[in-house]
Write a structure and sequence with these properties.
- The chain is an alpha/beta fold.
- The chain has 16 helices and twelve strands.
- The strands form three sheets. It has a six-stranded mixed sheet, with helices on both faces.
- Strand 8 and strand 9 form a beta hairpin.
- The radius of gyration is 22 Å and the shape is globular.
Length: about 350
Protein backbone atom coordinates (compact mmCIF):
# COMPACT_ATOMS: atom_id res chain seq x y z
CA UNK A 1 0.00 0.00 0.00
CA UNK A 2 1.05 3.59 -0.55
CA UNK A 3 1.28 6.33 2.06
CA UNK A 4 -2.40 7.34 1.82
CA UNK A 5 -3.65 3.80 2.26
CA UNK A 6 -1.14 3.15 5.03
CA UNK A 7 -2.16 6.11 7.19
CA UNK A 8 -5.85 5.33 6.74
CA UNK A 9 -5.31 1.68 7.66
CA UNK A 10 -3.07 2.49 10.63
CA UNK A 11 -5.38 5.24 11.93
CA UNK A 12 -8.84 4.01 10.83
CA UNK A 13 -10.81 6.36 13.10
CA UNK A 14 -8.91 9.52 12.22
CA UNK A 15 -10.59 12.40 10.43
CA UNK A 16 -9.36 12.08 6.85
CA UNK A 17 -9.02 15.17 4.66
CA UNK A 18 -8.02 14.45 1.06
CA UNK A 19 -6.68 17.47 -0.80
CA UNK A 20 -6.79 15.50 -4.06
CA UNK A 21 -10.58 15.86 -3.84
CA UNK A 22 -11.51 18.84 -6.00
CA UNK A 23 -14.34 19.90 -3.70
CA UNK A 24 -12.18 19.73 -0.58
CA UNK A 25 -9.26 21.42 -2.30
CA UNK A 26 -11.33 24.33 -3.60
CA UNK A 27 -13.06 24.90 -0.28
CA UNK A 28 -9.91 24.89 1.86
CA UNK A 29 -7.81 26.80 -0.64
CA UNK A 30 -10.39 29.58 -0.59
CA UNK A 31 -10.57 29.59 3.20
CA UNK A 32 -8.11 27.45 5.19
CA UNK A 33 -9.89 28.34 8.44
CA UNK A 34 -12.66 25.94 7.39
CA UNK A 35 -10.29 23.13 8.32
CA UNK A 36 -11.56 23.19 11.91
CA UNK A 37 -15.15 22.64 10.73
CA UNK A 38 -14.13 19.38 9.07
CA UNK A 39 -12.55 17.87 12.18
CA UNK A 40 -14.87 15.46 13.96
CA UNK A 41 -14.13 16.12 17.62
CA UNK A 42 -14.34 12.98 19.76
CA UNK A 43 -14.03 10.56 16.85
CA UNK A 44 -10.26 10.30 17.17
CA UNK A 45 -7.40 12.47 18.45
CA UNK A 46 -5.81 12.25 15.00
CA UNK A 47 -6.47 14.23 11.82
CA UNK A 48 -4.94 13.17 8.49
CA UNK A 49 -4.37 15.76 5.77
CA UNK A 50 -3.33 13.98 2.59
CA UNK A 51 -1.18 15.79 -0.02
CA UNK A 52 -0.76 18.82 2.23
CA UNK A 53 1.66 20.49 -0.20
CA UNK A 54 -1.28 21.39 -2.43
CA UNK A 55 -2.32 24.12 0.05
CA UNK A 56 0.81 25.32 1.88
CA UNK A 57 -1.09 28.07 3.73
CA UNK A 58 -3.17 25.46 5.53
CA UNK A 59 -0.12 24.84 7.72
CA UNK A 60 -0.84 28.10 9.56
CA UNK A 61 -4.21 26.69 10.55
CA UNK A 62 -2.62 23.37 11.50
CA UNK A 63 -0.20 25.28 13.72
CA UNK A 64 -3.07 27.14 15.39
CA UNK A 65 -5.06 23.98 16.04
CA UNK A 66 -2.02 22.22 17.49
CA UNK A 67 -1.44 25.09 19.91
CA UNK A 68 -5.02 26.02 20.79
CA UNK A 69 -6.91 22.73 20.47
CA UNK A 70 -4.09 20.21 21.08
CA UNK A 71 -5.15 18.34 17.93
CA UNK A 72 -2.74 15.75 16.54
CA UNK A 73 -2.07 15.84 12.81
CA UNK A 74 -0.62 13.40 10.29
CA UNK A 75 0.41 15.33 7.18
CA UNK A 76 1.37 13.46 4.01
CA UNK A 77 2.85 14.85 0.83
CA UNK A 78 4.55 13.88 -2.40
CA UNK A 79 6.43 17.10 -3.10
CA UNK A 80 8.34 19.54 -0.94
CA UNK A 81 8.66 22.22 -3.61
CA UNK A 82 5.78 24.49 -2.56
CA UNK A 83 6.61 23.98 1.10
CA UNK A 84 10.14 25.32 0.55
CA UNK A 85 8.93 28.70 -0.59
CA UNK A 86 9.57 31.70 1.63
CA UNK A 87 6.89 32.38 4.23
CA UNK A 88 5.49 28.82 4.47
CA UNK A 89 4.98 27.64 8.05
CA UNK A 90 7.01 24.42 8.36
CA UNK A 91 5.90 23.74 11.96
CA UNK A 92 9.48 23.85 13.23
CA UNK A 93 9.76 22.03 16.53
CA UNK A 94 6.16 20.81 16.32
CA UNK A 95 6.39 18.07 13.71
CA UNK A 96 8.47 14.97 13.08
CA UNK A 97 9.56 14.33 9.50
CA UNK A 98 9.41 10.76 8.20
CA UNK A 99 10.10 9.47 4.67
CA UNK A 100 8.42 6.40 3.20
CA UNK A 101 10.40 4.22 0.81
CA UNK A 102 9.45 1.47 -1.63
CA UNK A 103 8.83 -1.95 -0.16
CA UNK A 104 11.89 -3.49 1.45
CA UNK A 105 13.21 -7.02 1.12
CA UNK A 106 12.20 -7.63 4.73
CA UNK A 107 8.64 -6.43 4.06
CA UNK A 108 8.34 -8.60 0.96
CA UNK A 109 9.52 -11.66 2.88
CA UNK A 110 8.94 -14.87 0.95
CA UNK A 111 7.57 -12.84 -2.00
CA UNK A 112 10.96 -11.25 -2.66
CA UNK A 113 12.30 -12.10 -6.11
CA UNK A 114 15.61 -10.54 -7.09
CA UNK A 115 15.00 -10.54 -10.84
CA UNK A 116 11.57 -8.97 -10.43
CA UNK A 117 12.95 -6.36 -8.05
CA UNK A 118 15.72 -5.41 -10.46
CA UNK A 119 13.51 -5.24 -13.55
CA UNK A 120 10.39 -3.67 -12.15
CA UNK A 121 9.84 -1.94 -8.88
CA UNK A 122 9.27 -2.11 -5.13
CA UNK A 123 6.36 0.31 -5.27
CA UNK A 124 3.47 -1.59 -3.64
CA UNK A 125 0.95 -1.23 -6.48
CA UNK A 126 3.47 -2.11 -9.16
CA UNK A 127 4.77 -5.17 -7.31
CA UNK A 128 1.24 -6.58 -7.10
CA UNK A 129 0.07 -5.50 -10.55
CA UNK A 130 -0.24 -8.33 -13.10
CA UNK A 131 1.36 -6.01 -15.68
CA UNK A 132 3.98 -4.03 -13.73
CA UNK A 133 5.58 -2.71 -16.92
CA UNK A 134 2.35 -1.02 -18.03
CA UNK A 135 1.80 0.31 -14.52
CA UNK A 136 5.26 1.86 -14.42
CA UNK A 137 4.86 3.54 -17.80
CA UNK A 138 1.55 4.97 -16.59
CA UNK A 139 3.24 6.09 -13.36
CA UNK A 140 5.96 7.93 -15.27
CA UNK A 141 3.40 9.60 -17.51
CA UNK A 142 0.99 10.70 -14.79
CA UNK A 143 3.30 11.40 -11.89
CA UNK A 144 6.60 12.55 -13.31
CA UNK A 145 5.06 14.48 -16.18
CA UNK A 146 1.45 15.46 -15.43
CA UNK A 147 2.13 16.37 -11.79
CA UNK A 148 5.03 18.57 -12.85
CA UNK A 149 2.78 20.23 -15.42
CA UNK A 150 0.00 20.65 -12.86
CA UNK A 151 2.39 22.41 -10.48
CA UNK A 152 3.33 24.78 -13.29
CA UNK A 153 7.00 23.96 -12.88
CA UNK A 154 7.78 23.91 -16.58
CA UNK A 155 5.98 25.05 -19.71
CA UNK A 156 7.92 22.88 -22.11
CA UNK A 157 6.93 19.30 -21.36
CA UNK A 158 8.71 18.01 -24.46
CA UNK A 159 12.01 19.29 -23.05
CA UNK A 160 11.22 17.74 -19.67
CA UNK A 161 10.43 14.38 -21.29
CA UNK A 162 13.77 14.47 -23.16
CA UNK A 163 15.48 15.37 -19.91
CA UNK A 164 13.99 12.37 -18.06
CA UNK A 165 15.31 10.03 -20.74
CA UNK A 166 18.76 11.64 -20.71
CA UNK A 167 18.85 11.57 -16.89
CA UNK A 168 18.29 7.82 -16.90
CA UNK A 169 21.75 7.39 -18.46
CA UNK A 170 23.19 9.09 -15.35
CA UNK A 171 21.72 6.50 -12.99
CA UNK A 172 24.33 5.49 -10.40
CA UNK A 173 26.85 7.68 -12.24
CA UNK A 174 28.78 10.80 -11.31
CA UNK A 175 26.48 13.56 -12.44
CA UNK A 176 27.65 16.00 -15.10
CA UNK A 177 24.79 18.42 -15.64
CA UNK A 178 26.41 19.97 -18.71
CA UNK A 179 26.56 16.59 -20.43
CA UNK A 180 22.90 15.89 -19.66
CA UNK A 181 21.95 19.34 -20.97
CA UNK A 182 23.80 18.70 -24.22
CA UNK A 183 22.20 15.26 -24.59
CA UNK A 184 18.62 16.53 -24.26
CA UNK A 185 19.27 19.88 -26.04
CA UNK A 186 18.13 21.98 -23.09
CA UNK A 187 19.96 24.88 -21.44
CA UNK A 188 22.17 23.89 -18.52
CA UNK A 189 20.37 26.23 -16.10
CA UNK A 190 17.04 24.64 -17.00
CA UNK A 191 18.44 21.13 -16.55
CA UNK A 192 19.70 22.15 -13.11
CA UNK A 193 16.14 23.20 -12.28
CA UNK A 194 14.78 19.90 -13.63
CA UNK A 195 17.09 17.90 -11.36
CA UNK A 196 15.93 19.98 -8.40
CA UNK A 197 12.30 19.28 -9.34
CA UNK A 198 13.00 15.54 -9.22
CA UNK A 199 14.50 15.88 -5.76
CA UNK A 200 11.63 18.04 -4.51
CA UNK A 201 9.19 15.38 -5.73
CA UNK A 202 11.21 12.71 -3.87
CA UNK A 203 11.78 10.70 -7.04
CA UNK A 204 15.55 11.22 -7.22
CA UNK A 205 18.49 12.12 -5.05
CA UNK A 206 22.18 12.89 -5.27
CA UNK A 207 24.94 11.43 -3.10
CA UNK A 208 27.62 14.01 -2.26
CA UNK A 209 31.32 13.22 -2.11
CA UNK A 210 32.81 12.06 1.17
CA UNK A 211 35.53 14.57 2.02
CA UNK A 212 36.00 14.19 5.76
CA UNK A 213 39.71 14.22 6.64
CA UNK A 214 40.52 13.59 2.98
CA UNK A 215 44.11 12.58 2.25
CA UNK A 216 43.74 12.70 -1.52
CA UNK A 217 42.30 15.00 -4.15
CA UNK A 218 38.59 14.14 -4.37
CA UNK A 219 36.30 14.44 -7.38
CA UNK A 220 33.50 16.98 -7.01
CA UNK A 221 30.55 15.56 -8.95
CA UNK A 222 27.84 13.81 -6.87
CA UNK A 223 26.22 10.53 -7.92
CA UNK A 224 22.66 10.57 -9.19
CA UNK A 225 19.87 8.05 -8.60
CA UNK A 226 16.19 7.73 -9.38
CA UNK A 227 14.71 6.46 -6.14
CA UNK A 228 13.62 3.03 -7.39
CA UNK A 229 14.95 0.45 -9.82
CA UNK A 230 11.65 0.21 -11.68
CA UNK A 231 11.42 3.93 -12.39
CA UNK A 232 14.98 3.87 -13.74
CA UNK A 233 14.30 0.79 -15.89
CA UNK A 234 11.13 2.38 -17.29
CA UNK A 235 12.84 5.63 -18.25
CA UNK A 236 16.01 4.02 -19.63
CA UNK A 237 15.77 3.56 -23.44
CA UNK A 238 16.95 0.26 -24.88
CA UNK A 239 18.55 -0.40 -28.22
CA UNK A 240 20.59 -3.02 -30.08
CA UNK A 241 23.86 -1.47 -28.86
CA UNK A 242 22.94 -1.68 -25.16
CA UNK A 243 24.27 -4.66 -23.24
CA UNK A 244 22.16 -6.11 -20.43
CA UNK A 245 25.04 -5.63 -18.00
CA UNK A 246 25.23 -1.95 -18.91
CA UNK A 247 21.56 -1.53 -17.99
CA UNK A 248 21.44 -3.88 -15.00
CA UNK A 249 24.59 -2.61 -13.29
CA UNK A 250 22.97 0.67 -12.14
CA UNK A 251 19.82 -1.27 -11.17
CA UNK A 252 21.82 -3.48 -8.78
CA UNK A 253 23.41 -0.46 -7.15
CA UNK A 254 20.05 1.33 -6.91
CA UNK A 255 18.38 -1.63 -5.23
CA UNK A 256 21.15 -1.85 -2.64
CA UNK A 257 21.01 1.89 -1.97
CA UNK A 258 17.23 2.08 -1.59
CA UNK A 259 17.32 -0.80 0.90
CA UNK A 260 20.07 0.88 2.91
CA UNK A 261 18.19 4.18 2.95
CA UNK A 262 14.93 2.59 4.05
CA UNK A 263 16.57 0.69 6.91
CA UNK A 264 18.40 3.83 8.02
CA UNK A 265 15.18 5.89 8.01
CA UNK A 266 12.88 3.35 9.65
CA UNK A 267 15.35 2.46 12.42
CA UNK A 268 16.50 6.08 12.88
CA UNK A 269 20.15 5.03 12.60
CA UNK A 270 21.29 8.53 11.57
CA UNK A 271 23.71 7.47 8.85
CA UNK A 272 24.59 10.03 6.18
CA UNK A 273 25.09 8.76 2.62
CA UNK A 274 28.03 9.62 0.38
CA UNK A 275 30.10 8.39 -2.56
CA UNK A 276 33.89 8.57 -2.94
CA UNK A 277 36.10 9.04 -5.97
CA UNK A 278 39.70 10.22 -6.24
CA UNK A 279 41.29 11.91 -9.22
CA UNK A 280 42.78 8.74 -10.75
CA UNK A 281 39.32 7.22 -11.18
CA UNK A 282 39.44 4.84 -8.19
CA UNK A 283 36.13 5.01 -6.35
CA UNK A 284 33.63 3.44 -3.94
CA UNK A 285 29.94 3.30 -4.86
CA UNK A 286 28.22 3.94 -1.52
CA UNK A 287 29.44 5.20 1.86
CA UNK A 288 27.54 5.40 5.13
CA UNK A 289 28.86 7.61 7.91
CA UNK A 290 27.19 7.92 11.30
CA UNK A 291 27.17 7.07 15.01
CA UNK A 292 27.31 3.35 14.21
CA UNK A 293 30.50 3.72 12.18
CA UNK A 294 31.78 4.06 8.62
CA UNK A 295 30.71 1.56 5.94
CA UNK A 296 32.02 1.36 2.35
CA UNK A 297 30.14 -0.67 -0.28
CA UNK A 298 31.01 -1.58 -3.86
CA UNK A 299 28.31 -3.26 -5.98
CA UNK A 300 29.07 -5.37 -9.06
CA UNK A 301 26.67 -7.47 -11.10
CA UNK A 302 29.35 -9.92 -12.30
CA UNK A 303 29.87 -13.36 -10.75
CA UNK A 304 33.63 -12.94 -11.19
CA UNK A 305 35.92 -10.52 -9.41
CA UNK A 306 37.95 -8.87 -12.12
CA UNK A 307 41.31 -7.21 -11.67
CA UNK A 308 41.08 -3.79 -10.06
CA UNK A 309 37.47 -4.08 -8.84
CA UNK A 310 38.57 -4.15 -5.20
CA UNK A 311 41.03 -1.27 -5.59
CA UNK A 312 38.58 1.40 -4.44
CA UNK A 313 37.71 -0.43 -1.23
CA UNK A 314 41.36 -1.21 -0.54
CA UNK A 315 42.41 2.40 -1.01
CA UNK A 316 39.51 3.68 1.10
CA UNK A 317 40.37 1.18 3.85
CA UNK A 318 43.96 2.41 3.74
CA UNK A 319 42.82 6.02 4.28
CA UNK A 320 40.07 5.14 6.78
CA UNK A 321 41.15 2.08 8.72
CA UNK A 322 37.97 2.06 10.86
CA UNK A 323 35.77 1.46 7.81
CA UNK A 324 33.89 -1.80 7.30
CA UNK A 325 34.15 -2.73 3.63
CA UNK A 326 31.75 -4.84 1.54
CA UNK A 327 31.93 -6.06 -2.04
CA UNK A 328 28.40 -7.01 -3.13
CA UNK A 329 28.45 -9.24 -6.19
CA UNK A 330 26.57 -11.68 -8.42
CA UNK A 331 28.50 -14.71 -7.23
CA UNK A 332 27.22 -17.32 -4.80
CA UNK A 333 30.13 -17.51 -2.37
CA UNK A 334 31.09 -15.41 0.63
CA UNK A 335 34.76 -14.55 0.94
CA UNK A 336 37.10 -12.32 2.90
CA UNK A 337 39.79 -10.71 0.77
CA UNK A 338 42.24 -8.44 2.57
CA UNK A 339 39.59 -7.55 5.14
CA UNK A 340 36.92 -6.90 2.51
CA UNK A 341 33.74 -8.94 2.97
CA UNK A 342 32.65 -10.34 -0.38
CA UNK A 343 28.95 -11.20 -0.17
CA UNK A 344 26.25 -12.27 -2.69
CA UNK A 345 23.65 -9.59 -3.30
CA UNK A 346 20.66 -11.54 -1.92
CA UNK A 347 22.53 -12.35 1.28
CA UNK A 348 23.59 -8.74 1.63
CA UNK A 349 20.07 -7.39 1.13
CA UNK A 350 18.67 -9.75 3.76
CA UNK A 351 21.36 -8.92 6.32
CA UNK A 352 21.31 -5.13 5.96
CA UNK A 353 19.67 -4.67 9.41
CA UNK A 354 22.55 -6.53 11.07
CA UNK A 355 25.17 -4.73 9.01
CA UNK A 356 23.87 -1.24 9.81
CA UNK A 357 23.06 -1.90 13.45
CA UNK A 358 25.28 -4.73 14.69
CA UNK A 359 24.73 -3.88 18.38
CA UNK A 360 21.04 -4.80 18.24
CA UNK A 361 21.64 -7.87 16.08
Amino acid sequence: MGKSRWVQTTFPNATYIDLLSAKTFNELQANPSRLEERILIGKSPWVIIDEVQRIPTILNEVHRLIEKKKIKFILTGSSARKLKRDGVNLLAGRALLQHMYPLTVHELGADFNLEKSLRFVHLPKAYLDPDPDAFLHSCVKTYLKEEVQFEGLTRNMDSFARFLEAASFSQAQYLNVSNVAAECHVERKTVDQYFQILQDFFVAYRLPMFTKKARRKIQQHPKFYFFDTGIYQTLRPRGPLDSQEEIDGPAWETLVLQELMAENEYKNLKYQFFCWSVQNGVDVDILLFGPQGLIAIEVKRSDRIRGGELDGLKLFKKDYSVAKTFFVWGGTEERNIDGIQVIPIEKFLKTIPAILNPVVS
